[in-house]
Amino acid sequence: MIHQTELSDLLPGMVPFPTDVFPADQAWLGQHLLPLLKIDLGVLRPELAGQVATMLCPIEPYDGCIGETTGEHHNDFTGTNWIAFELTAGNEMRFLGNEDYFIGDAVQDKDAQEHIAQMRDSYARARDYHATHGRLACYSRYGKGEASERDYLDTLGGPIGFGNWTETAEIPAAFELGFTEAADDPNAADDAETVIITRNGNKFFAVADVAGYNWCATGADAIVMLYEPESRTVLFSYDWS
User: Fold this and answer.
1) pLDDT band at 1 (very low <50, low <70, confident <90, very high)
2) What are phi and psi of 29, to 5 degrees?
3) What is the chain's mean pLDDT, rounded?
4) Whole-model pTM above 0.85?
5) Phi and psi of 97, rounded to 5°?
6) Do the beta carbons of residue 75 and residue 172 sit within 8 Å?
7) 148-170, pLDDT tens digit by residue?
């Protein structure tokens, strides 16, 4: 099992700030999600080489959890703090929910509008910094406008570990979430599997996690990215510590 932390150098098959991420009929996703890093899943499982999924950072929410105020637009694949995608044969990220799941620019709150603008601006500045210096840097909301170099990922691979994200909100109906005995064992090994998530009985594995603020002005403390190969489902949740 590959398990790396504090990934400061790109591995083969990784592309930061990708542009060819969403299907043409879902181009609107670019208004809601910032593409951070393409990851060839072959770095984790050789048999998946050529399947390339993208780590995504939501622009919203300004406050609370993504999807928290759009419950009427949830479905079996999306819910509060959970979103899912199908990785297409062309390695595009097809959203398994509907557009109204996101609030987007329709939000009326002035602070939320400023948050959206700041997320997009900081992402663009980080992209430009990377193009010039070949390193990732964020422009934090809490800084003084200066670039601060960061890791591309906080974790790559490893077991699916317990965190606030597993209990913040119920997982959507298409998936099942359970805990192993190690979750309640204070003496369990650090790399013990504590969380099992499945779709139709097929297990997800951990792809990566990273703080949204490694790339943008702010964001979740951990964007958790999981993959289920049989259905080619990419599942995201968010840990707010």
Assistant:
1) low
2) -60, -25
3) 94
4) yes
5) -110, -160
6) yes
7) 999 999 999 999 988 999 999 99
- Reported as a single tens digit per residue, the pLDDT across 105-146 is 777 778 888 999 999 999 999 999 999 999 999 999 887 788
Q: What one-letter code names the amino acid at 109?
A: D
- Length of the chain, in residues: 241
Task: Find where tokens 């805990």 sit.
Answer: 179
Residue 42 CA to residue 52 CA, distance in Å, equals 8
pLDDT confidence of 55, banded at 50, 70, 90? Answer: very high
The 3-class SS string of the chain reads: CCEEEEECCCCCCEEECCCCCCCHHHHHHHHCEEEEEEEEHHHCCHHHCCCEEEEEEECCCCCCCCCCCCHHHCECCEECCEEEEEECCCCCEEECCCHHHCCHHHCCCHHHHHHHHHHHHHHHHHHHHHHHHCCCEECCCCCCCCCEECCCEEEEECCCCCCHHHCCCCCCCCCEEEECHHHHCCCCCCCCCCEEEEECCEECEEEEEECHHHCCCCCCCEEEEEEECCCCEEEEEEECC
What is the share, in percent, of the chain residues with pLDDT greater than 70? 99
Residue 134 backbone zone (phi > 0: left; psi -120 to 50: alpha; other: beta): left
Domain ranges of the chain: 3-239
Using the Cα atoms of residue 16, residue 210, residue 200 and residue 2 in order, give the sign of their dihedral: positive
